[in-house]
């Protein structure tokens, strides 16, 4: 199994499929020329022909990239749930699926096709952003592209990041978060980002990263990339999510925290999130079939109020407390430490306050985004 793929997960792609109504777009032609891969043209509303059924063909599907139009909305609120505290994140949907292959990835149970999709009608994307940001000039938007795909995994092919960063540099009421498990940051160098882009990495315990995050960058690679982005003036963010219970988890997460602050200036970090493993019930069967050596889905879970399986409360609290203690000892005072999708009872037990005490979670993150 190819677990690292030469530091660029885009290298795992071996074939392009192009929707016929996108062939004449200049951006499509640029990507085709850059990729230098075999190309198959499909109907505007057709899909790539793939052997097998989903999700059994998902591994093979990750070698196929479909360039197509997004016929829906590019810009929409994060699909949080009212039962747990949401950060009021806004999702910018640039594509679907990811060439990396994390055992716990919720997209396996959320999507219903195996290939990668990238939306090439970027003029529509920016027009939609223009309209949304202009409609609420007094609102501050935190926008991310990493909800349905990795923000930078395909950037060596698409080179979308410079377009996004340059666009965001001209906005006064928004910041963009590019979240990744790759080290595809070359296209970010030398850009006049004006502090409007935050580059973020998901982090985990080294054993989890090695065993459960296939074709991703290793811990030290991610941290070196983060340090370079900090040197280029970008704010950074990190996400300990999903936190997974495993033998030696205490040492593993403590090691990652130590390495993080040894490699990256604390004052460059806007926020750090914590979120314990949670998953849609169908994911267990899908992941067990695709990754039979992984065992963490066979731990004890309960049904959460949002319909996802979660660790029982004492386990979540114990993991959160250890990680939060390590972060609080090293983090800059103005870095926002927060939970992703937890309830007020857990906030109070672990943090000693609830978000409402500080104006709400969205306000906490808005302040962290603005202070640098």
Secondary-structure blueprint:
Elements: E1 15-19, H1 26-35, E2 39-42, H2 58-61, E3 64-68, E4 75-77, E5 90-92, E6 95-96, E7 101-102, H3 107-110, E8 116-119, H4 122-135, E9 141-144, H5 155-158, H6 161-169, E10 174-180, E11 197-203, H7 206-212, E12 213-214, H8 219-231, E13 235-243, H9 249-263, E14 269-276, E15 278-279, H10 282-290, E16 301-303, E17 309-311, H11 313-330, E18 336-339, H12 344-351, H13 361-371
Parallel strand pairs: 1-2, 1-3, 3-8, 5-9, 9-10, 10-11, 11-13, 13-14, 14-18
Antiparallel strand pairs: 4-5, 6-8, 7-12, 15-17, 16-17
Helix pairs in contact: 8-9, 9-11, 11-12
Enumerate how many helices there are, as a single number.
13
Mean model confidence by pLDDT: 94
Beta-strand content bin: 15-25%
Helix content: 25-40%
Distance between the termini: 42 Å
Rounded to the nearest angstrom, the radius of gyration is: 20 Å
Q: Give the overall form.
A: globular
Largest sheet, if any?
8 strands, mixed
Class per helix and strand makeup = alpha/beta
Report low-confidence residues grouped into runs of 5 or more: 1-5
List how many beta strands DSSP finds: 18
Strands across the major sheet, in which order? 4-5-9-10-11-13-14-18
Please give a structural write-up.
There is one protein chain. This protein is 34% helix and 21% strand. The protein has 372 residues and is of the alpha/beta class. An eight-stranded mixed beta sheet has the order 4-5-9-10-11-13-14-18, sandwiched between helices. Strands 2-1-3-8-6 form a five-stranded mixed beta sheet, with helices on one face. Helix 8 (219-231) packs parallel to helix 9.
